[in-house]
Amino acid sequence: MSKIYELIAQLCPDGVSFKRLNEISEMKRGTSITKKDIVEGDIPVISGGRMPAYYCNSYNRDGETITVAGSGAGAGYVQYWNQPIFVCDAFSVKGKEYVITKYLYYCLSNMQEYIYSTKKGGGVPHVHISNIENVMLPVPPLKVQREIVHILDSFTLLTAELTAELTAELTVRKKQYQYYRNKMLTFETKVTRKRLGEIFDFRNGLSKGKEFFGRGTPFIRYIDVYNHRALRKEDITALVECTSLELKKLRVSRGDVLFTRTSETAEDVGWSSVMLDDIGDCVFNGFTIKATPKTDDLLPEYCAYCFATDDFRNYVTTHCAFTTRASLTGNTIAEYQMAIPSIDVQLRIANVLSNFEAICSDLNIGLPAEIEARQKQYEYYRDKLLTFKELGE
């Protein structure tokens, strides 16, 4: 019998008590901060994304800390920090004296999908302390917690090393794909170029209270745009009640391009998704911008790749505004110049890149599937280690 099972048999043979998260930890909301109010340094500012929003020279949490992202595309993402950090649009969790913070981190990581499921908001999703403060977690003796942390730390390191080798190979393939995508969309011969304002009409989306969601017209959420380079009918799962006038003004049709217009960081604005289906009635959220083509000279599949290039991404990150959040306007996007080759050339480019992308991205084949298998194996053993019989059952 391994050491962990010996400890459980010795210290908690009849099970362990389960307690609410807010009973066994100190939970704090973040502190508002704007980029203009800070002096750059090496302290990570934790906000709505998976990466620090930026860096400052002061901190409001020290030592071991768990953060849960509060809003944006990464809302609900759980991270562990063993250094000073500044928690902004997020909240922090620290274990009390009888609960190891790293043990709590593994418990919360084990319920990451549940935390994601608590997101609220029809536009930019949010996760609040109230969403998870009452979740029940097992509280074994400290010796058992320490051994679980030791095992999972070791397993995490091993999994990370194995995954890193596979990821490095996949990264090379993706860089190769990105290189050819950028190369194919950088035209050395003379090609017509136009400002996006000449070929698209721009409009912001629908803002409604939460009581209007869950029924009515298909609704494209912020997260749908952020996570999909192209949108199909089956990708649209949300519903919203809207008036006939709102539907007329905000209908989304094949060929429309949607851009995220606000987020915590400049890197998260301007991500685009092109609607590839005609799905009838459908509207879009107020945290995105819709660009409707004014010409038949654009192939939607071609547009989907154009707005994913390094050139467009660099344009967005250097031209977006930043106050309390990064933001982008239709007027800013309208100034970007886009190459418009013939429809035949657009179709050929789209077909080549689609096939290349499938090789790199399909989770059912090759390296991505192997990486996914490693992660699932790790999650399986983590779940096993964190599953306890409740005392009194």
Word description of this protein:
The chain has 14 helices and 22 strands. Strand 5 and strand 6 form a beta hairpin. 39% of the residues lie in helices and 22% in strands. Helix 1 crosses helix 6, helix 6 runs antiparallel to helix 13 and helix 6 packs antiparallel against helix 14. The radius of gyration is 24 Å and the shape is globular. The chain is an alpha+beta fold. The mean pLDDT is 88. The strands form seven sheets. Strands 11-19-15-17-13 form a five-stranded mixed beta sheet. Among the domains are: 121 residues, Adenine-n6-DNA-methyltransferase TaqI, Chain A, domain 2 (Alpha-Beta Complex); 149 residues, Alpha-Beta Complex (Adenine-n6-DNA-methyltransferase TaqI, Chain A, domain 2).
Mean pLDDT across all amino acids: 88
Radius of gyration: 24 Å
In CATH, the homologous superfamily of one domain goes by the name DNA methylase specificity domains
Strand content: 15-25%
Largest sheet: 5 strands, mixed
Widest sheet: strand ordering: 11-19-15-17-13
Query: What is the highest CATH level, the class of one domain?
Result: Alpha Beta
Helix count equals: 14
Descriptive tags:
393 residues, alpha+beta, Adenine-n6-DNA-methyltransferase TaqI, Chain A, domain 2, 5-stranded mixed β-sheet, 4-stranded antiparallel β-sheet, 14 helices, 39% helix, 22% strand, globular
Short recap of the structure:
With 393 residues, this protein is an alpha+beta fold.
